[in-house]
Amino acid sequence: MNAIVALCHFCELHGPRTLFCTEVLHAPLPKGAGNGDSPGQGEQAEEEEGGIQMSSRIRTHSPAEGASAESSSPGPKKSDMCEASVSQGCRSLAAGHPGYISHDKETSIKYVSHQHPNHPQLFSIVRQACVRSLSCEVCPGREGPIFFGDEQHGFVFSHTFFIKDSLARGFQRWYSIIAIMMDRIYLINSWPFLLGKIRGIIDELQGKALKVFEAEQFGCPQRAQRMNTAFTPFLHQRNGNAARSLTSLTSDDNLWACLHTSFAWLLKACGSRLTEKLLEGAPTEDTLVQMEKLADLEEESESWDNSEAEEEEKAPVLPEGAEGRELTKCPTDFSLHLDCGNWQPRKLSVFKSLRHMRQVLGAPSFRMLAWHVLMGNQVIWKSRDADLVQSAFEILRTMLPVGCVRIIPYSNQYEEAYRCNFLGLSPHVQIPSHVLSSEFAVVVEVHTATRSSLHPVGCEDDQSLSKYEFVVTSGSPVAADRVGPTILNKMEAALTNQNLSVDVVDQCLVCLKEEWMNKVKVLFKFTKVDSRPKEDTQKLLSILGASEEDNVKLLKFWMTGLSKTYKSHLMSTVRSPTASAS
């Protein structure tokens, strides 16, 4: 995460001051910022901490770390800080301390901790955020989280808190932990995460300080001593007790190393928990239907688990000889190859694409089949090869919205059209005569070929299909005689255009489906919600370019594929007076 996390303190002499900050460096350290790898400059102490390599190194310190006080330095002057001792409240690291550097091996990112940022612009941003967090930008009670900032100086998540100090005015000192970044949306979305983790750091600091405070009060109670001492203005500032460091208040010499580890982990974890995704417009109907089906499947699995638990509690007695037998249930509506009690992994696709299927079946047979698919008629495939049937359904279903697809991949008996519009059957299954003679069904029979090749050979052809013969029949040849729906004509034009790759054809099909689903939504709103008269509906169909008979049938069938979310949203919408009057 491109941010800076800092610990700030309100000094009674100098006001708000930055004590310790951790920043992210994506590029190598600048020259002179880290020379710890050269011999003779110090020992290197490293430890692994959650995939981040932490090391304390000898570094050339900037004036912000107390080495000098030139006019060009981004850090504060010596006169603006407490005495140059590590025991004072305005300082965290001693003048010669190298600071802390953590290396993230996965991303090659470095997390650097010191008292102030070395870059002048970053120092100014952190300084302003520190002042605002400990002065004007506070929540009621002066302790708790708050958000503020702007585009120029960055946005800040600030959490103020008190630390117990037996020698301070009011027996407590005021601190804040701030997270600064330029991305307002990202920081707001990270609020719950930052609040929980920073609250944990604060609780640990307050717990350590409370133990020290109670021990000091037990040994020498300060409240009674102050009441018995004559009042002296600014007594505590002059005797130096007001400037006790945080390490002294918590009695933890490794405090800054621990804070560096916590801040570095906070930056890494907060940066990896959220990812950006490009969303183009509202979710499609297919996405909504898939989400609804997933929710229904989860509910069914929960109810199934509950029923199984109840059956286990009842502990039924098995009949004699039933031990060792496994009762299996054969699902009928899954997109996997299931064979009543014997699940088999899915094989490679037999049909590669719609263009491939058109080459295998031939243009006239494919057009008839595609017409029935788009109209919502029942499509029946009879074959001994269940994988071939499954592959054919996977290709044909791409022509329809997800909500219009009802598949029984392979069955040993005929299923009515209201249960499925794609049905796979074994060759011995008898299809009722009224279905064979109906214009609302199409049958594709797959026979063993008598010759080596019975269909045109294309570049995408699979040699495994050369042993089959495909016969497409329907009770009415209406599909071959009519012009057909507009989407079918456009689809065939894309399939016959050899300049378009298979991927481009797939995207073209997606666009065509979205175009006609939008027409379906308009028609549904017009007829089902607003209850417009038939004359107005005809005018609307003419405007939509769908007044032909096949187009109207297609729109009515695709209307069944609208998501429940969209339908309920429209039905719950209050009709306007003008719509009701018309």
UniProtKB/TrEMBL annotation:
Main location: other
Regions of compositional bias (Low complexity) in chain numbering: 63-76
Record InterPro entries: FLCN/SMCR8_DENN, FLCN_DENN_C_sf, Folliculin, Folliculin/SMCR8_longin, Folliculin_DENN
Keyword terms: Cell projection, Coiled coil, Cytoplasm, Cytoskeleton, GTPase activation, Lysosome, Membrane, Nucleus, Phosphoprotein
Domain UDENN FLCN/SMCR8-type intervals: 91-563
One term of GO molecular function: GTPase activator activity
Biological process according to GO: intracellular signal transduction; negative regulation of signal transduction; negative regulation of transcription by RNA polymerase II; positive regulation of TORC1 signaling; positive regulation of transforming growth factor beta receptor signaling pathway
One of the Pfam families matching this protein, by short name: Folliculin
Region of interest (Disordered), residue spans: 32-82, 299-322
GO cellular component, one term: centrosome
The keyword Ligase is assigned to this record: no
Subcellular location field: Cell projection, Cilium; Cytoplasm, Cytoskeleton, Microtubule organizing center, Centrosome; Cytoplasm, Cytoskeleton, Spindle; Cytoplasm, Cytosol
Acidic residues composition-biased segments: 299-313
Subunit structure: Interacts (via C-terminus) with FNIP1 or FNIP2 (via C-terminus). Component of the lysosomal folliculin complex (LFC), composed of FLCN, FNIP1 (or FNIP2), RagA/RRAGA or RagB/RRAGB GDP-bound, RagC/RRAGC or RagD/RRAGD GTP-bound, and Ragulator. Interaction with FNIP1 or FNIP2 mediates indirect interaction with the PRKAA1, PRKAB1 and PRKAG1 subunits of 5'-AMP-activated protein kinase (AMPK). Interacts with HSP90AA1 in the presence of FNIP1. Interacts with HSP70, STUB1, CDC37, AHSA1, CCT2, STIP1, PTGES3 and PPP5C.
UniProt xrefs under PANTHER family: FOLLICULIN, FOLLICULIN FAMILY MEMBER
Assigned protein family: Belongs to the folliculin family.
The protein's name in its UniProt record: Folliculin
